[in-house]
Write a structure and sequence with these properties.
The protein has 212 residues and is an alpha/beta fold. The chain has 2 domains: 119 residues, D-Maltodextrin-Binding Protein, domain 2 (3-Layer(aba) Sandwich); 88 residues, 3-Layer(aba) Sandwich (D-Maltodextrin-Binding Protein, domain 2), CATH 3.40.190. It has 6 helices and 11 strands. The strands form 2 sheets. The chain has a 6-stranded mixed sheet. The chain has a 5-stranded mixed sheet with strand order 8-7-9-6-10. Strand 7, helix 4 and strand 8 form a beta-alpha-beta unit. The radius of gyration is 19 Å and the shape is elongated. The protein binds adenosine-5'-triphosphate and zinc ion.
């Protein structure tokens, strides 16, 4: 019987909760030792530990059948993969922020301004719809420091409590996208894998119901 391959984040904000979800589904697997791939002992599934940003591509290319990622990463990737289930953890939002002393009244503020972000696809579509021209400066990390060092007039980044913004002298002014962890799948799973996915989904839904 073929096994279902699920990719989860190797280390980061989604890792622990992804592992916990699988464990709560009754799936037992050896974990630790920095292994990149591990096999469950009581369920036909293999677990791949990867960088979250790489997961959409691997699921599209069928290197993995399933993945657990943030919706923000799914939308930004533009990959043709299915959102199977919202998982209800790691909730956050992608927001626009500006230096806190800035007089901000509306999105018009951003016209012809420079915005630093790691989410160029989401952000350019957002401003295209509004018909507001902006310059997007793509940086892969520590986006919050961009205004302070004169790289940008504002930023677009993941926010949960807002404390990181505050400690960098920024204030949140607009929400661009709501996000949470989601289960994604390749478009054309073979039937035997679909059946395993159905079993897994049933368990995920039971775990979530039990917590309500
Ligand atoms: P990697 O090294 O795997 O690329 P990363 O640095 O890109 O990791 P993390 O910071 O671990 O990613 O975040 C992973 C995901 O967790 C994000 O894509 C987002 O969906 C979610 N997330 C990020 N920050 C927060 C937060 N402050 N609160 C809740 N969820 C968050
Ligand atoms: Zn990442």
């Amino acid at each position: 019987m073929s096994k279902l391959k699920i990719a989860i984040q190797k280390s980061g904000r989604l890792s622990e909760k992804s592992i916990k979800l699988l464990e709560e589904c009754g799936i037992k697997f050896p974990n630790g030792g920095g292994k990149l791939i591990t096999e469950a002992t009581n369920f036909p599934i293999e677990i791949l530990f990867l960088r979250d940003d790489d997961i959409p591509q691997y699921v599209e290319q069928q290197v993995a059948d399933l993945g657990i990622i943030g919706e923000n990463v799914l939308v930004e990737s533009k990959k043709k993969i299915n959102l199977v289930e919202k998982l209800g953890f790691s909730s956050c939002r992608l927001s626009l922020a500006v230096p806190k002393e800035t007089q901000y009244e509306s999105l018009e503020f951003f016209r012809n301004k420079r915005i630093a972000t790691s989410y160029p696809n989401i952000l350019s579509e957002y401003f295209q719809k509004l018909q507001i021209e902006v310059t997007i400066e793509v940086i892969s990390g520590s986006v919050e420091i961009a205004p302070g060092i004169g790289l940008a007039d504002g930023i677009c980044d993941i926010v949960s409590s807002g404390s990181t913004l505050l400690s960098n002298g920024l204030k949140e002014v607009e929400k661009v996208l709501d996000s949470q962890a989601v289960l994604v799948a390749n478009h054309d799973l073979e039937d035997s894998k679909k059946q395993i996915l159905e079993k897994l989904l049933f368990r995920i839904q039971s775990v979530r119901k039990a917590k309500e």
